[in-house]
Structure formats: structure tokens, C-alpha cells
Write a structure and sequence with these properties.
NAD(P)-bd_dom_sf (chains A, B, C, D); homotetramer; globular; six-stranded parallel sheet; Dihydrodipicolinate Reductase, domain 2; Gfo/Idh/MocA family oxidoreductase (chains A, B, C, D); alpha/beta; Gfo/Idh/MocA_oxidoreduct (chains A, B, C, D); nine-stranded mixed sheet; Rossmann fold
Chain lengths: 388, 388, 388, 388
């Protein structure tokens, strides 16, 4: 493994941004990564202020990503960044990602990976060509109890999966906030910045990814009902999707951003022949494990539980009862990405555990999911075939 | 009001039956009703044993409902029963109900009301002709916090309803129990005894009724996906239904009897412009009331809470913190039915609170729901119009 | 077993009373008991109204218990009541109970059993002399999951008990309600009607009984701190008691009626060498079973769970997921008492399961508990020996 | 504020240590602090390995704290550390802390602050003399909802506090693990390394601090019952303490490390004249706010809730529904300490919000608490006066 911290440059994520700050907490946490430069805003003043706030040197505080990528790639190897993190709005993911890859930088990128499926496929090709690593921050797969669920399904603990319910209610778009000065709401409900779907692109993709990550099953058909429930909005703020999987399982994915009073209540339930699993993001350290003939068990995250899979335990930082949360889940993605990068940079093979973070394939799945739910929602035919 | 207990006769509900016992607990609880006779089983031995167990006189322990209805109607008015309770399997609801009405007896009947929609409509006509009262035991509408939710929606507390999620997972049919000697499973999965739908008829109807009871909204379109997830079964054991309502609201109804490890986890969430409501049958004394800009409130059942609607409070027997449950909810249906009957029998007008129990119209809605979800599930067209 | 319902007479419990109504729901529920007469109030008008409301015949609607006991004992055996239920305030328990026993009636009595320990001992002597049955309604021991906990401790599932925490917070006396027209508050905070302790007598005794019922352990020493936290009150409204048990276990009992915002939050936790048990009255159908090296298990009440003790299951009326509550727990006490009486009246031996209801010995324990906590609270010495 | 990261040196916390790693996560998280050197172990091999693992330069990887403090204080000001973090076992807190202060370094120190009260007082004197800052990591006061509770009590939201229940059950010492090779258990149950109390020193002090932090009340008397419940142990592994506060409030503090099956279940309930507050460490983002006449409210941590105190919000990193946990609470202590240091080093006055972290006075309170509970537990007199 590399005998130094990895060097990160950030694109987007200036001082008022939400997700940029989250990425920094996650990257800092484990002491494996240092932020070395940033193109934090296209507004020069915000860029400068943000750089100062983060103690970046002035000469590595850029105002656009092109400059940053060019200048960083000209720096000597022992100073130059190892990867860029892209935390701009969806429409501005592809260009910097492609340019970074072309200049030899690894990439961490917010989801959805790009604006269109085609762009995602181009990135995949570039990743394959270059051998570089692209990490997509589908945060929720970073939680240890999600990993425990995945492992249990894999090992057949609940038998063949028959039914999947995944839901993601939020309430923050219950008003037409995009017209009331809410910057987050503004770009996320704007088809030009967000893409062809609002709610499904923003959070439906998380739900779909979570189901795929845990069960490993592939969608064959979907039947989507996307809704605009707040008058005047331009993109779906709600939707339900019926699901069919390749092993015969049925499912339902529900997402809403107008579920008034809900925070960020992603939850998944998976039922198999022998038992069921239930995990809720807002109480992430608990995995309910249900059985046909025995009491439900409360599996708990934490180092030191012999009943947990090592795959889950390695993603815990604390013993049971010391709750970890969203930032730690995010941190796990960065941690595993950093381990992978460190291995590759020191010419060793990343282990399966290191490689446990979402990658370009997950991004392509997400973009296809968006395309297909939008297509299905417009269709009068019940079932739309799901293919990528 | 009548100065005596009401007299009940029971059809079905012999000593090994599940739901018959439930009806007796519910009818006994408030001291307003006495069980006077029964045709508890068509098996004479079981009928006799069951009668003894219930301290029924031998001469009012019948072995078939025809006998019972005939003989009871020949008794003097001060001895004769006031109503029959029908707790036989679905296919055996209609005939005794019709005969009872024809002989001047009021009727309490388990859901689904009949085997076919047409039968239900015949019962409706008879009820209208006779002026008698028919009560359908959709238990879950008997819970006080369900009534509180209904009242709050009605009064506009959460604004216009936008979204309804109602789910009903059970796990008890995860195995092919109908082939393993489980009598409950046997008739409920048998199209000849249960009807054209299994899971949707048995519990989906409860979920649909609950949503209707609380919101008062009417379905306009549905898109159903019914599944047989346990190989070898003859009726659906699982299903998801997308819903469209007449006010523009969208919804999703999920029911499953193969959700391994679940008990009887009926739950509803309703979101409006200003807030949301959440109620779960397994913790029935709590109603979560969610707001856009204020903390979620935990409304609690119980006499003495000034913040509750009197409509809810009248259906509580105990002060807060003394949990009431399923039997009390069932008891509320009997209580309100008994009050209605008592009023009518003493020639006074039942109040709106007395009339708060499911009636023949609810039965018709349920039968139409079964018909339409089966029709939709077979259709390749996405949306099936919902009409009765 | 007796081939008829048992006949009950009620002393106290007129139309505005709280606990009398509870006793009637509980006695009615299972169809084993019929209310035949009552001395429901010493106010003749309330007595008459209450009798009418309950459909009692006028000639068995009494205005004092002496009349009732005398006249009922003069009735022919097939009409005469089998037992009286006493639901008057504490100070008026002893006299009617003693008179009933002297006239050959069995007795159900609200807790605390009497006003003084000495009276309780006199009742015990009379019960022993007459062979009659006295049932004390310590409701909380009627819950199935409490019985499950008792059985598990008995069978050594959690090993030797080391630690007991039992708590009983209520908030309803947070104001000086006894001066604001609250009748319940008035007598319960009046030393002449309630006894020498308020909170500890009213609810502390329930907590102490619950701990004793589940663990079977005997107190050896206590250290009590009783408080009057609302100025102007005459009896303790709060208290904590340190406990020492005969097997070396340590404990803490906390009760308060000024825990603002709490309903009736009785909860017990018991820790042994191998595991722990947790039960909370407000979610009574769940028993948490904790282990040193395995996930916590959620044991659930309900017929049909093979993992439950038959001792618990026999006290369930419904399958899992159909919540039973306070009235059913109360009903279990009446049910088991009725079975015992039925067996004795038909000259058979009641089984251990029938005899599973609190009796006169539990009443004596409760009175001793009150005496000792009051004594300890006044003492400067840390530990007060607990003896009866 | 300072235009650079603060520089930290760590004493203790080598690669197998629990709490050292926690401190590093917490210090890293916000990007305000960099670890520059360490005396991570007295075992030279472990020290070297740990240094490498943390990417420390070899010449700043020390094997004892004396060396580290001496050599660091000789470095030029722009390289020298700003503070040391001491994460050694209790008996080894005082000497490095005193030496660090004497050499002009600020100090972060694990609780309990020292081995004896007298040592704590010496540290206090030195802190006062030097004007340096000492931060004591009573983690639980770092949670935003604890801060919300504190603020609500302060502002009188629940009226005068009457009752405090604070409990801290853990189960990890249910076996005699100190004899089975558990290093954590070994030193914590060894009077020579841990001090005169085990459970009360380790976690009782956290509970006592939490109650003090939220209510601001001062103890006047205590009555303690410390127990050794696992045979063969040398220090208390369990205890209950009755509490009296200077405003007349009563309380009870319960701590146990033999509560089999419990993780780290610190919980506090505070009741006042008008309402109550409840917070549990294992679900830290929720604060239950209870009222006499209104539904309980679920206050939730998260940026953007207008109903939260800014004092709480400033200690949140994420919006509601993105759970933060133990590491973030720890991080808040480091964050506020860092802000204070940054202000002082740039000659500005730290604000009240910056100064919101436990300090030397809290350490003295903790040591006095340990002394007094041990004294009380040995005494036959009920109440022991609490004074520092």
C-alpha cells in the first residue's frame, strides 16, 4: 500500500453547497486523503473564499475545472493530485469527468453519473481504456448493515428472494420551493440541469441501486407511474414503479419528494422463502432479520459482533452502541476507493473488500433506470422491458 | 335506547374457528349483546360441543343456519334474536345473509361480504327494501386513531391529499401450508371457497377499505400486479396496485401473504399539502402526525386527550397509556352497530357516531375492488378504470 | 367445569368511576361471567342510573354493600352470585371484602388490597379459614409477555438474575389536580382515603409486584427516597427505591406521577448472567430478549408461536400481529380466576395455569412494601430490612 | 481566525487502542486539525507501526511522551504542535497533561481527567496560571440534541426541573473478561490503572456529566449503592445512585456494565413542571419533547429546522434524516475546541458557542463524583453531602 495520503482535487462544492461539504467530511474522516486543490465555484469570489475556508493554497484555488485539470496534470508527480471529486449539478458531471480521465486522474463523482445514458457509456469506455478508477457515490450502499444484508442474501440465509419493497419518501419539495429562492430545489427541478426526471433521478436511482446492491437481482420489466403532484413543477416529484426481476421476484419501488413531513426515509424490505430483511436509513445501525418460525432478530452494526459478516464489520469504525451514520457510510465509499487506489498505485491487486464501492457500471444502471421509468410512465402498455 | 341487551345468533364460528371467537370477544366486551343461539358448525358434534362451551341452551344449538333462522323467527319477540353474525368462509356468506334479512333479522357479516359482486348487490337491494341493518366487519376502521386520521383529513388538517401508501404484509402463507393440513390456509387459497382472489380478497380489501375510510377519496383507475409467489398455489398470494384517485392523488397498495416473518403489519401513510399521517396496526394507539415546518407529533389514543377528536375519543375505553388493541377495534364495530340497532329498535334515529361502522356499501366496494384488481392484473393495458 | 357462567356482584364502580368499567370489560370479554347485581354507588341516584345502564334488574341494584351481601346470600343457590368485585377507593376495601368472605362469597379486589397491612393479614386468615378464593387485580401480571418473561427466568434462560430495573412514570399528577376538581386525583392524594403512601401505594406496588412475579426473588433490604414534588400535596407523588434481593441481585424501582408527559409507562428490565429481558407496558405484545453474544430477539405475543411458553400462549386470544392490550391482560386475571372458581365449584382441582392470578399473599406483599418504603424514606439509615 | 489547520500530537492511541482511533476520526472530520506527531505506544515496535499507519514522519514518531513534549517544544513555531491529545489509561493522564501545560501546549484529555481529585485540582491550577486550554472529551455532551435539551431547559420550556433519571447500561463486562485476555476489560477493572471505581468511573461519570450539562443543576446529596455483580472482579461493575439537587429536584443515576445484551444505552429523562425531555444515545438524532396537554413532539437533529436552537444547529453537519452519530458528537467537541484555540491563537475572544466543550471544571466534577459515590456506597448513613 501507498505510504502517504492520497491527494484530492474538488470540482464544485463551494461554501454554500450541500454535497461538497459532505464529500469533504467523508474524505477527511479516515486520514487517508488530503484535499489539495479545488475548482470550487465558477464565481471567483466564492471560489476564493471557499479555498481560504479550506486552507487551500491560493495557487491551487482554481475558478474552473479546465484550469485545474490542466495545471494539476503539469505538477510534479509527488505534488499532483491523484483524483478529482466532482460535485457539480448533474448536467455538469460529464465534461469534467471525461477531461479528468483523459488527463490520467481517477474520478469520484456524485450520482446520477451523467446527464444522459450515452454520456455514461462514454465514461465507461474511457474508464476501460485508461484503467483508471471511477467511484460513484451511491452513499447508501456504504452502510455496514446494508453490506450485512447483501452478504446474507448472497449466502442464502433468507432463501430465494421473492419480494422487494423499497421506498424513499422525502418531504422537502412539498411546496414549490424552486420559485421561493431554494437553490437546491431550483436546479433539481429544472430539466436542463437535472435531466429528464426529478424525483426518480434524484432519489429513485438510490432506491433502485440499493435493491440491486443487496439482492444482486436484475430487473426484467418495470411499470412506472411518475407524477407531478405540486402544481407548476416541471419534473416528476413522485413516483411508484412495479418491478419484475430475473429470478421471478416481484417488487415495488416508491419514491416521493412531496411526502410532507418526511426527512430522508429510504427503507428496504426483502422477503425470501425462509425469512426477511428490513433496513431503514434513518436508523442505519439496525438490520431486522425476520424468520418464519423464530423471533425476529435485531442485528446491530459495530465492531466485535461475531454474528456479523466480516464484510460488514470492516466497514464499522466503532463498537456496537456507538452509532455511526450517513457521513461514515459516505466515508466507507471513500475509504474503499482510497484503499483501491492505494493498492493500484503501489502495483498491488485491490481485494474484493477494497473494490466494494459503486463504479461506472452502477452509473450506467442508474441512467438506464431513469430512461426506462420515464419511458414506461409515458406508455399505455403495462410492462416496459428493462434493458441497458 | 333499548332497556336490554341485544340478542345475537351466530352462524359458523365453531370451537376451532379463528374469526368466530374474535366476534364473540368483540360482542361480549361492552355488555350490550348476549349470544343466545348458534349454528356453529355443520358437523353436529362440533356444533354441540361448541354450544356447550358457550353455555348455549341445547334447544338453541342448531346444526344448520336454515333451521336456526326458521326456529328463531318463530320464537316470541322477547326471546327471539335481534341479529345474526355470519362467520363462515366467503362462499357461504350470501345465502344465510339473504335468508336472515328475509326473515327480518339484522346481519353482521365477515368480509368480503359475498363471493361475487352480484351477490353483494342483491344484499344491498334487500337491505334497502327491508330497512334492516347490515354491518360488515372491516375491523381496522374500528381503531380510534384511524378515526382520528379520518377526522383530520376531513377537517383539512393536512390539506389536499396528494399521496397514499397503504401496505399489508403478512408472512403466514410463505410455505404451501394449504397442503400441510392448515385449515385456514386451505380454504383461503381455494378459489371455490375464497373467490377469485386470495391475498387481495383476504387482506387487500382491508387495505383498500382503510384508505377509503380515512381519505374519503374515490378510485378512478388502478394498475394491478397480482402474483403467485409460492409454487403450486392456486390464488394470488401477493400483489401491488398503483392507484389514481378522483382528486388527482396517486397511491400504491401493497399486500402480501408471503412476506416471511411479518405478522399482520397493515400500515397506511397519507400525505397532503401541509402534512402527513402515519398509522400502523401493530402499534395502533399511536398516530404520527407530520408537518412541513414543525416537529412530528405523536397523537395517542385514550380518553381525556383534549387534542383528539370526540369522534375518536368515543371509541376509546381506557385513558392514554392503557393500550387497547384488535379486539377493542372489533368491539367498536359491534358497539356502534349495537347502538344503531338499539336506537332503531326503540324508534329513535341513530346518530352519526352510532352509524360509524362499515355497511353494505363498503361490501360492494370491496367486491368491486377484487373484480377490478383481477381484471387489471390480467390486462396488458396499464390503467383499468375503476367503477362499481 | 361448571356448565354455566359465573355470577358477579359489583361493589363500587358507578357510572363515573374509572376502574369499575375496566373490571366489567375484563369480566365480560370471555363470556364466562355475568354481572348480576351491584352496589355501584352510595349515591342512590347514581346507583339507580348505573344499574339501568348495565341492564341490572331493579331489585338487584343496591345502594350499599351490606344490603347486597345480605340479600344476595339469601337468594336460592342457582340465582345467588358467586363472587363480589370490590372497586371502591382503598379505604373502603376491607369491610366489604371481609363481609363477603363471611357470607361465603369469593372476592375480586382492586389493589392495594386494604388500607393497612394488618387488615390484609386479617383477610388472609379469613381466606384460609373459609377456603374461598380472593383475587387481587395486579393487572400487569396478566400480560402474556410478562408470563413469558417469568417462565424464561424460571427455566434459567438468562441465568442467575443480577440486576432489576423497574420503572413506572406517569405524568397525570404534575399539577395540583386534587384542588382542581379531579375526583381521581382527590382521593388518591388524600391520606384518609388512599393510605400512608400516594405514588408508591398506587403504582409503586404494581412495579414491585411485577418484579416479584417475573423473578420470584425476595427483597431483603430497601432504601427509599419518597418525594412530594408538587407543592401543597399531602402524599408522595414520586420516589426511587434501591433494592437488594435474597440471591444477591441489586435493583432499582422508580415511580413517579409527576413525570410530565408520560402516560402509564411501566417498564421492567432484568439482567442475568447470560442475557436480559425487557418489557414495556405500552408496547405489551413485545418482549425483548437480549443475549451476550447473539442478536437481541423480539419475542411476540400471539397464539401459534412455537417459541413461546404454553404458559404465555394460553393467555393470548389472537394470533401474532393482532395486538391485545390492557383490557385483555385484565381479562386474563378474570379468566384464570373464573376457571379456578369453576373448577372448585365443580369439585375439581384447579390447575397451576388456572391459579395464575394474584392472590391474598400478593396483597400482603404490597401492603408490606408500602409500609417499608414509607419507613425507609423517613429513616437516616441507608438500608431498611424488608420483612413481612 | 487562524489561517491554517491546528497541529496535534497524540499520546497513547497506538494501533490496537480503541479510543485513540476515535479521537483521530473526530479530529480529522472537519479538516481543521492535522495529526503531526505521536507517542502512540511505549512499545517501540507498536509506536513505529502506528506512526507508519498514520503517515507520520519517522522523526516525529516518539516512544514516550517526555521526548515528544521536549522535542516538539524545541521546534520552530510554524512547525511545532498546538496541542496534545492524551488517550492513555486513567492512571497515565496526569503526568503528560501537566508536562504539556508546563511546556505551553494546550491539552485534549480523555475522561476521567486524572486518577485522583487532587491531581485534577493541580491541573486546574496550572490551566489557570498558563491561560492554556484543556478540553475533556465527555463525548455525549457533543450531540446536537443534547445541546437542544440544554437550551430548552435553560429557556424554561419545561418549567422548573423536578426529576432526573439518567441511566447507562452496558453489558460488555457480564463475564470476567479481564481474565480472558480482553485488554480493555483488564485495565478498566484494575484499581491501579482505572482508579477507585470501575463502572462509576468509566460510565457513571458520563451520566452525571450529561445530567449536569443539560440541567445546569448542582448536586447537594447522594446515596450510592455500588455493586460487584461478577464474582472475582476488583471494582464495581454496577451501581445506582439517588440524587438530590440544589433546586429541590430528585434524581436517580443508574449505571451498569453487566446489563447483559446492552450496548451503550445511555439515556436521560428530565421532567419539569410543564413537560419532559427524553434523549437516548443510541438514537441520538431524536429528542422527545413531552407536554402535559399536547402530543409528544419528535425533535430531530439536522440543519434547516427552524424549531431548533441555533446552539444545536451549529453542531449539525447534515440536513435532517441524514443521521449523524457518535463520531460527529466527538467531532463537535474537537470542532469547538479547535475554534476556541484558533480564536485565541489569533488573539480574538472565543464566542460562547466556541467554548461549548467540557473543560477542566468538568473534570473536577467527575473526580469528585467518583470520590463521593465510593464514599457513600461504603457508608451506612443514607445521604452523603456532595461537595467538591
Amino acid at each position: 500500500m501507498l505510504n502517504r495520503k492520497l491527494r484530492m482535487g474538488m470540482i464544485g462544492g463551494g461554501k454554500d453547497a450541500f454535497i461538497g461539504a459532505i464529500h469533504r467530511f467523508a474524505a477527511n474522516m479516515d486520514g487517508l486523503i488530503e484535499l489539495c486543490c479545488g475548482a470550487l465555484s465558477i464565481n471567483p469570489e466564492i471560489a476564493a473564499d471557499s479555498g481560504k475556508m479550506l486552507f487551500l493554497p491560493e495557487d491551487r484555488t482554481y475558478t474552473n475545472y479546465e484550469d485545474m485539470i490542466k495545471k494539476e496534470s503539469a505538477l510534479p508527480e509527488d505534488k499532483r493530485i491523484d483524483f478529482v471529486t466532482i460535485v457539480t449539478p448533474n448536467f455538469a458531471h460529464f465534461a469534467p469527468a471525461m477531461m479528468a480521465l483523459e488527463h490520467g486522474f481517477n474520478v469520484v463523482i456524485e450520482k446520477p453519473i451523467t446527464f444522459t445514458l450515452d454520456e455514461a457509456k462514454q465514461l465507461q469506455q474511457k474508464v476501460n481504456e485508461t484503467g483508471l478508477t471511477l467511484c460513484l457515490t451511491h452513499t447508501y450502499s456504504g452502510y455496514p448493515m446494508v453490506k450485512q444484508a447483501r452478504q446474507m442474501v448472497k449466502e442464502g440465509a433468507i432463501g430465494k428472494v421473492r419480494k422487494i419493497w423499497v421506498e424513499y419518501p422525502q418531504g422537502w419539495l412539498s411546496k414549490l420551493s424552486e420559485r421561493e429562492g431554494n437553490a437546491q430545489a431550483a436546479w433539481r427541478t429544472d430539466p436542463k440541469k437535472s435531466g429528464k426526471s426529478g424525483c426518480m433521478g434524484d432519489i429513485g436511482t438510490h432506491a433502485a441501486h440499493l435493491a440491486k446492491y443487496i439482492t444482486g437481482l436484475n430487473l426484467t420489466h418495470i411499470c412506472a407511474d411518475l407524477n407531478i403532484l405540486v402544481e407548476g413543477r416541471h419534473l416528476d416529484d413522485d413516483g411508484n414503479v412495479l418491478l419484475k426481476y430475473d429470478n421471478g421476484a416481484a417488487g415495488c419501488l416508491m419514491a416521493s419528494q412531496v411526502a410532507a413531513g418526511e426527512e430522508n426515509a429510504l427503507k428496504i424490505r426483502i422477503y425470501g422463502e425462509k425469512g426477511g430483511l428490513e433496513w431503514a436509513q434513518q436508523e442505519p445501525n439496525t438490520l431486522l432479520v425476520k424468520w418464519l418460525d423464530q423471533p425476529t432478530q435485531i442485528f446491530r452494526a459495530g465492531g466485535g459482533y461475531s454474528y456479523l459478516s466480516p464484510f460488514a464489520t470492516k466497514n464499522c469504525r466503532t463498537p456496537g452502541g456507538h452509532p455511526e451514520g450517513y457521513l461514515e457510510a459516505f466515508g466507507n465509499i471513500y475509504h474503499n476507493f482510497a484503499q483501491t487506489l492505494s493498492a493500484k498505485l503501489s502495483n498491488s491487486e485491490p481485494t474484493e473488500e477494497m473494490l466494494d464501492f459503486p463504479r461506472v457500471e452502477d452509473g450506467i444502471f442508474g441512467m438506464a433506470f431513469i430512461d426506462k421509468v420515464v419511458e414506461s410512465s409515458k406508455s399505455d402498455v403495462k410492462w416496459t422491458k428493462f434493458e441497458i
